[in-house]
Amino acid sequence: MVSPNEAELEYNQLNPLAQALMHMGRGDDIILSPYQTLPDVLGEGEYATSEYPIYITLPPQEILPFLDNVDDAYKERNEDFCFFSGGFQFGNIEDTLKERGYCRDTMTQILISGMEIGEEGIKDVSVSLGPDSVGEDKLAGECSACGKWNGAIAKRLERSSVTCKTEFYRDWRRKMWERSCMDAVFNLIGSVRADPTTLSDVANYYEEEASDMLWEISGHLRAWKAVTLTYGFEERLFGFAERRSDQQCTIVDDWYQYIWGNKVFSSSKKFLEYLHYAKNDMGYLQTVDLPPMKEETELELASPSRLRTGNLRADGVI
After folding, report:
1. Is 199 helix (H, G, I), strand (E, B) or coil?
2. What are phi and psi of 116, to 5 degrees?
3. Are 313 and 206 in contact (CB under 8 A)?
């Protein structure tokens, strides 16, 4: 399922995720706009079925309008909806789904940020951190799915050699928030530098700043969302980021709500300070009204703050 203006387009005109999902399918997928009629049966022969997953490949900004205007045929099949989140493609959509009652144990949600779609095709970007205490491979940044159709999407991804774990909603949610923390924190810290900075740079040269911010946010995550990040989250986040030397840190106004704007993040004094610095001193977020800072911070002092003059990089450069 793609945006309304993408109905009845050729394969190479579809959005990248829709293309990837069709490529990984068995050839019986169909593309619909959100307001086209659902087929009674999908597939042919032994694969024909009246029950099938409905992949929502809409960008986050279009999900709420879709849910508000969906017709009865879709409402009757809402247990078959499959939503994607993670990374700059789909961000954190938990609040959007919760607003319409779509955050529940049986709802299929896919953390898709462990898959990269580029000129070279579909690529698994998860990384191995070595063996764990029982000798099994420790992965970071892999795709993950929960809910009714978690097995179906996992098999689809695995056909293209993309790792996708199937998990219960509670465990999937922890993993989703872990990725959301990395997207928000690492990109924010990297974007306030004078020179272009990658996720790998943040992991290697700004570890103290990132770690402090992550731990502060983890406390707010427990308070606001009743979510506790799984043991070893720092190792996974930094291990994944260290291998992303090609991904430049950035802040995009249109994605503020889905990457940096959650109250879990803005409740962090340090995170909010960096947001205001990014807006006031670096020129980002000019179309965004940030939450006010509740108390005086380094940014309001006459003396320079560590953000301006700190020396946390190994080469001595901020």
Report:
1. helix
2. -115, 135
3. yes
Backbone torsion region of residue 176, taken as left when φ is above 0, otherwise alpha when ψ lies between -120 and 50, otherwise beta: alpha
What token pair was written down for 122?
């579909």
Two structure tokens written together for 158: 């695995």
- Give tens-digit pLDDT for 65-111: 989 988 888 889 999 999 999 998 899 999 999 999 998 889 999 99
Return the half-sphere exposure (C-beta side, CA atoms, 13 A cut-off) of residue 65: 10
Q: Are 31 and 11 in contact (CB under 8 A)?
A: no
Question: What CA–CA distance (Å, rounded) separates 145 from 156?
Answer: 12
- Give residue 307's pLDDT band: very low, low, confident or very high (50, 70, 90): very low
Tokens coding 262: 């959650």
Which residues have C-beta within 8 Å of that of residue 62, sequence separation ≥ 6?
3, 34
Higher pLDDT, 41 or 6: 41
Residue 311: predicted pLDDT:
38
Q: Which residue has the tokens 């017709």?
A: 71
Alpha carbon distance 157, 116 (integer Å): 12
Query: Is the Cβ–Cβ distance between 62 and 3 less than 8 Å?
Result: yes
Phi then psi dihedrals of residue 313, to 5 deg: -90, 145
For residue 40, what are the contacts with CB-CB under 8 A and spacing of at least 6? Answer: 50
Write down the pTM of the prediction: 0.88
* 8 A C-beta contact, residue 145 and residue 172: yes
112: alpha, beta or left? (left if phi > 0; alpha if psi -120 to 50): alpha
Q: What contacts 24+ positions apart, CB below 8 Å, involve 284-289? A: 284/191, 284/251, 284/253, 285/251, 285/253, 285/256, 286/253, 287/253, 288/253, 288/256, 288/261
| pLDDT beyond 80 at 218 | yes
Q: In sequence order, what are the beta bridge partners of 121? A: 118
